[in-house]
Amino acid sequence: MPTFPNRRAVALGFGIPCIAIVLVAPFLSCLPLSVFGIPIVFVWIFAWFPLTSLCLWLCERLR
Amino acid sequence: MTGVIVASVLLLSLGAAWLARVRSRHMSVETLLVADRALPAPMLFILTVGEIYSIGSIVAFPAGLYGHGVSYGYWFLGYLLLAFPVGYFVGPAIWQRAKQYDACTLPEVFGRHFKSVAFERLTAWACVIALVPWGQFQFIGLRSVLDTMGFSATPAAGLAGCAVIAFAYVALGGVRASTYVAFLKDVLMLFGIAAVGVGAICMQYKLSGGHADIVRPTLALPSGSSLVFAITTILYQGIGFYFQPSVTPYLFTARSAQAVRKAMIFMPLYMLMYPFAVFATIFALRFLPPLSNPNAVFFHVAGVLLPPWMVALAAAGAVLAGLLVLAATSLNIAAMMTRNIAPKLGRRHPKRAINLAVVLFLVLALVATAHAPAIMLTALNVSGYIGIQFASLWFLILTGWPASARIAGLGLFSGAGVAIALFASGVSLGGVNPGLIGLLANCAIVFCPLWRGRSAVHVHTKKDLL
């Protein structure tokens, strides 16, 4: 049976990626900065592909 | 040569579907629809990414980025990335509910939870309305890829061939066959996108004088309202992604709740293919003449940078992506038609009825693609506002909130109605996604405390939920 996740797990697995995507990324998307031609907001989001997996993996460890 | 390579890959995919059939000890309706709820985490991962990263990843994402700039890319990547943490927490609970109600289709969960056959039928119709344009959209994507491959002279024949192959996947092994074919599709699609991306990086480095300097962005930056639209759409689609009728049924195939969680952990890593697609699009913007058809941007860059055999393999991956979603969607629709909408039709020979309904859907979708593609694209936009409204029903089920079938139905249709009315009227909302407003209205209705005393639905205790 699935157990209801605790607050710490939700904050780590959902809260942190959500802040990175919904709160931080919009500010970066307006900056005219780029790395090797890639807008900085995409560099940020690309970094969050493995970081989101890491957050979820840590969540699983917390269970 | 392109035709030979694509045909060989399609034959190989049929072989994979046949292998799924051979490996199945029996072929019941449950095997066909939910793979006997026996898929371990790796196979669930392959099936889900196979269905999520459809033909849109290789055609629509580069095209949208090319045409609309940063705001499109932020929305597309943002909502997918947000969907996986949501799926990690709600996915196991959805699987648990489907198992508890012994459900093979979404309406079965809704009908059995709210104890109403009429509600089951009503939600089945709503699911079909949301799914038909999505399945049909795959035909439009397949047509675009076939055109790119030079098969534009006989599009109807090409699409008819695609319909036959999609039916073969369903008939051979149902959702389990999709899993086997998805493995082949993932390998080819990852290979294609990575090859084009690496080629674009190397060529950019060469063309910019041998030093990879920091350059001015070539993609348009977002304006105020486009950024508001991107953020609200990320919230709406990211949170609602796993509640859509086009996605939720894949969770039913898992062996356990633990398998769903494990698969979700690795889902974001599959997105590592998108940087290559971004590199390819930026290469097209910086170094190639403007394209009249943005949908062709990825394969145009591939044609410039890669040898024909590699382009053909990438195109085969795109075709398989379209076929997989088409097969799974038609199976989903057929299951609801024969089990929930007209159960008498499939009582004697359920598998035969499902196969017949799949054929019927494929033929109708093929005719719609040939004769009314513009209407179907509008239908796709509208269906997007219906699919995620099912989130409110899942919120009720997962929280055990005591709402009746009537209230749940009122919320569902009010939410969809508000979203579609706002979309169709063109009222300025400052960029806020109409679907999000519809979902908020929907949730306000179903969770309204006024109904609590009148509900006859069993209230789940916390123990039930856990």
From TrEMBL, chain A:
<keyword id="KW-1133">Transmembrane helix</keyword>
<feature type="transmembrane region" description="Helical">
    <location>
        <begin position="9"/>
        <end position="29"/>
    </location>
</feature>
<feature type="transmembrane region" description="Helical">
    <location>
        <begin position="35"/>
        <end position="59"/>
    </location>
</feature>
<keyword id="KW-0812">Transmembrane</keyword>
<keyword id="KW-0472">Membrane</keyword>
<protein>
    <recommendedName>
        <fullName>DUF3311 domain-containing protein</fullName>
    </recommendedName>
</protein>
Automatic annotation (TrEMBL), chain B:
<feature type="transmembrane region" description="Helical">
    <location>
        <begin position="408"/>
        <end position="429"/>
    </location>
</feature>
<feature type="transmembrane region" description="Helical">
    <location>
        <begin position="308"/>
        <end position="333"/>
    </location>
</feature>
<feature type="transmembrane region" description="Helical">
    <location>
        <begin position="6"/>
        <end position="22"/>
    </location>
</feature>
<dbReference type="GO" id="GO:0022857">
    <property type="term" value="F:transmembrane transporter activity"/>
</dbReference>
<feature type="transmembrane region" description="Helical">
    <location>
        <begin position="382"/>
        <end position="401"/>
    </location>
</feature>
<feature type="transmembrane region" description="Helical">
    <location>
        <begin position="43"/>
        <end position="66"/>
    </location>
</feature>
<feature type="transmembrane region" description="Helical">
    <location>
        <begin position="72"/>
        <end position="91"/>
    </location>
</feature>
<feature type="transmembrane region" description="Helical">
    <location>
        <begin position="122"/>
        <end position="141"/>
    </location>
</feature>
<dbReference type="GO" id="GO:0005886">
    <property type="term" value="C:plasma membrane"/>
</dbReference>
<feature type="transmembrane region" description="Helical">
    <location>
        <begin position="354"/>
        <end position="376"/>
    </location>
</feature>
<dbReference type="Pfam" id="PF00474">
    <property type="entry name" value="SSF"/>
</dbReference>
<protein>
    <submittedName>
        <fullName>Sodium:solute symporter</fullName>
    </submittedName>
</protein>
<dbReference type="InterPro" id="IPR050277">
    <property type="entry name" value="Sodium:Solute_Symporter"/>
</dbReference>
<comment type="similarity">
    <text>Belongs to the sodium:solute symporter (SSF) (TC 2.A.21) family.</text>
</comment>
<feature type="transmembrane region" description="Helical">
    <location>
        <begin position="187"/>
        <end position="207"/>
    </location>
</feature>
<keyword id="KW-0813">Transport</keyword>
<feature type="transmembrane region" description="Helical">
    <location>
        <begin position="435"/>
        <end position="453"/>
    </location>
</feature>
<dbReference type="InterPro" id="IPR038377">
    <property type="entry name" value="Na/Glc_symporter_sf"/>
</dbReference>
<keyword id="KW-0812">Transmembrane</keyword>
<keyword id="KW-1133">Transmembrane helix</keyword>
<feature type="transmembrane region" description="Helical">
    <location>
        <begin position="153"/>
        <end position="175"/>
    </location>
</feature>
<keyword id="KW-0472">Membrane</keyword>
